[in-house]
Fold:
Amino acid sequence: MSALAPGGTIGILGGGQLGRMLAHAAEQLGFDVAIYTDEQDSPAARVSALTVIADYQDVEELTAFAQRVDVITTEFENVPAQTAEALIAGGARVAPNPHALAVAQDRFDEKSYFQSAGIDTPPFAAVSSQEELEAAVAEIGLPAILKTRRLGYDGRGQIRLLTSDDVAGAYGKLGAPGILEGFCNFVCEISIIAARGQDGAIAYFDLCENEHAGGILSRTQAPARVSELVEVNAREAIKRVLEAFDYVGVLTIEFFVMDDGSLVANEMAPRVHNSGHWTIEGALTSQFEQHIRAIAGWPLGPTTRVADCEMFNLIGEQALDWEKLAADPNTRLHLYGKRDARTGRKMGHVTKLKLR
Ligand code: AMP
Structure:
C-alpha cells in the first residue's frame, strides 16, 4: 500500500494519554487526527481535529468514522476485536491487525501464543471455577498470581496467592474467568519496544528497565542494566512475534529477567507503551512518531538513544507538584490534561536525561 501523504487523517480508537501523544506525533508529520472514544472529555480529544464519542460496538458510527479517515489504529488493547474487524469490513486500513489485538486481550491466549513461538512464560493454567483453581495450585504451587483472563491492566484484576488460606474463595473474589501463574522471582523487569514498517523493516528501541508500585509502572530507566545477551534474546523474541503477526506499528513485550539471565515473557501490548515515554526526548524518533510512520507506510525513523534516561509516572496527586517539576531544569514535564487527579490515575510523567 502506498505511503499516506501529509494532510491525510489518522484515526485512533481510544482517547487516553497514549492517543494524545500519538496525536502530537501525527501532527508533527503533517497529519490530522480523529479520535473515536466512548469517553467524554478525553485527553486525546482535546488535541485532535475531530472526535467521535460513541460506543465501541456501534457499527454505524464505526463505519462512518472509517470513511472519514485514511488509516485507523488503537491506543489501548481492549478495543473489541469485532470493532477492528467491522472497520476493516467497512473498507478501512487498520493497523495493527485484529489478530494481534485479539491475542493480546486474553492472558491465556497470549501466554499460549508465546509458548508456541518458543518464548518462555511463567507456568500457567486457565481457571474457570474454584475447583479448577485448586487443581492448578496443586500443579503450579504457591506463591502464585491469579489474574483475570481479560480486561486486567495496571495490576487490576489480580490476586496474589501466598498460602492455602489465600486460595480458599479466591476464584469467587476474582469474579471472572482467570489464569493462574506461577510467581517469578525475577531480578528485574524489562520491556522491549520495537516497530515493524509496512515494508517489513524492524527497528528496536533500547531496552527499558521497569519498576512497578502496586502493579502500576512507576519508573523506567533506559538503557536497562542487563547483558548484551539479554538484549539479543529480547530482540529475537519480539522479531518473531512481529513477523508471525505480519504486524505493522509499535509492539511492546514485557519480560521478567531471571537470575540466570533468561527471559520470561509476562505480556505484550500491541501499541506504544508507558515504558517507552522516555523516547520522546531520549531517542531520535519517539515511539509515538515511529508508530505513526509505520501505520502511514512511511520509512521507520532511527531509534538511536541520545542520553541515559529515567522516566517517572505522575500518579494521582503526584501531578499536583507540577510547579516544582516545571522549575527543575533537568526534568521534562508531560501532563495529560486529565481534570481529576484520582488515586492510581496516570496524570503525566517526567523524563530526566543524563546528557553524555
Ligand atoms: P501485569 O498486569 O500482568 O503486567 O502485572 C503487573 C505486575 O505484577 C508485573 O509488572 C509484575 O511486577 C507483577 N507480576 C505479574 N505477574 C507476575 C508473576 N507471574 N510473577 C511475579 N510477578 C508478577
Q: What stands out?
A: Residues 9-94 form a domain with the Rossmann fold fold (CATH 3.40.50.20). The chain has a mean pLDDT of 95.
